[in-house]
Amino acid sequence: MKKLNLILLTANMIWMISCSGADELDTTYQDLIDQGWLFFDNAQYDSALSRFTSARDYNIEPSDAYTARGWCFMKLDNLSSAASEFTIASSALDPAAELYAGWAFTLNAQKNYASSNTQASEALLAAPNWIFPHALNLNADHLHLLKAENYFALGDYANSLLEVNTLTSFSVDVSSSAGQAALAAKIEQLKTTL
Q: Which of 119, 140, 153, 181 lies in disulfide reach of 103, CB 3.0 to 4.6 Å?
């Protein structure tokens, strides 16, 4: 009886392993991307990164796995890895606005304000009404606000004000220190209301 149980247990384990392998073979690149975004949407960034890495390893050509990995690294506060992933993704044909947007936010966090503005502009050029399709509630307004913040950090108060005015009507003399302080306060206010 023990021998029969052992044989049945072994046969069951072999069957389970073979079924598991079949499931893995049936998993497509798009399945891995979709699974990764589900994890991302639930703030499970390590698990998302794992799926996106599997997708990248499955097919290294498309930019979306690199872009998705960039967003994960950014959320995991690994900004240098995020920037590397976005750089790789940018060499693909027709990269999505999500690439440039994620890259812009990453560069801003790295205090590379001029390059952040370049990437934000690329995102807005690719999709003027951009909406990030995942859980972070980001859209084109956030990119304009990011540009306003970047210009302010660069001391380009006139362009900072122009970006603020894409979001709301606001008038101030940016050539005065009082006007610059008012502009800074407006940017901070917009960061809490967008």
A: 119
